[in-house]
Amino acid sequence: MISEGLVTIQELNLEIGRTLIQIARRSIYEKFSLDKLKLDDYNNPILDKKGLAFVTLEEIYDNRTELRGCIGYVEAVAPLKEIVALAAKAAAFSDPRFKPLSKNELDKIIIEVTVLTKPEEIIVNDRWLLPKEITVGKDGLIVEKGILHSGLLLPQVAKEYCWDSETFLAETCIKASLEPDCWLDKSVRIKKFNGIIFREASPNSDNILVINPQNVECKIKSYLLD
């Protein structure tokens, strides 16, 4: 049963995050008949609220990780637990950038679930002022033009790549298959949202990290300092 209202970030905690990670992994394992996911077993009223979420998969190579899939939903069409289950399976097997996950990769995959707030359009009279309305590390972005062009980048992405807000806008335009300066076009809609991250410390781990996107390390800066 779907509870009324949209789940808020403030309602989430470590235990709910651990449950979301478990749902995501069991949804993926189900594809290989290694587990059976029964969403009715998860009857927390928070999980039954409608929610927006992305599931990101990263594969471990030596001492580093590489993106292996990332799919999510920004429309509140189902309970949070169902959204995470669907997103996990899609990230593993339907992300067009990658081949479907294989069974022998399961123990190399770190699962990350980002729960989002409802995207809100940024309205400004002067498009040049858009970067000032975006807080790097807090806001994620969606760029939309018509029905053919849409791109989304999660809040943590700008922090990982050390982008300022203008670069973040440009990169989201590129994600939408538009020109980098598309955000200056008044026919392009720019939306922002917030998020909270739950991430496995290692594959299949019960140690779940709760991460504020503002605390994500800048990979480029770290690389330059090494």
Number of domains: 2
Structural class: alpha+beta
The number of helices is: 5
Q: How far is the first residue's CA from the last residue's CA?
A: 51 Å
Unreliable parts: 221-226
The arrangement of helices and strands along the chain is: EHEEEHEEEEHHEEEH
Give the CATH superfamily of the largest domain: Hypothetical protein ph0010, domain 1
* DSSP E strands, number: 11
Task: Report the CATH C-level class of the largest domain.
Answer: Alpha Beta
Q: Provide the β-strand percentage band.
A: 25-35%
Indicate the radius of gyration in whole angstroms.
Answer: 18 Å
Mean of all residue-level pLDDT scores: 92
- Overall body shape: globular
Tell me about the largest β-sheet. 5 strands, antiparallel
Summary?
This protein has 226 residues and is of the alpha+beta class. The protein has helices at 14-31, 80-93, 155-160, 165-175, 219-225; strands at residues 3-6, 49-50, 52-61, 64-73, 109-116, 120-121, 140-145, 149-153, 189-193, 195-200, 208-211. Residues 221-226 have low confidence and may be disordered.
Characterization of this structure:
It is a single chain. A hairpin with a 3-residue loop joins strand 7 (140-145) and strand 8 (149-153). The protein is built from five helices and eleven strands. The protein folds into two domains: 3-117 and 195-212, Hypothetical protein ph0010, domain 1 (Glycoprotein, Type 4 Pilin), CATH 3.30.700; 120-192, Hypothetical protein ph0010, domain 2 (Dna Ligase, domain 1). Strands 4-3-5-10-11 form a five-stranded antiparallel β-sheet, with helices on one face. Strands 6-9-7-8 form a four-stranded antiparallel β-sheet. A two-stranded parallel sheet has the order 1-2. 25% of the residues lie in helices and 27% in strands. It has helices at residues 14-31, 80-93, 155-160, 165-175, 219-225, and strands spanning 3-6, 49-50, 52-61, 64-73, 109-116, 120-121, 140-145, 149-153, 189-193, 195-200, 208-211. With 226 residues, it is an alpha+beta fold.
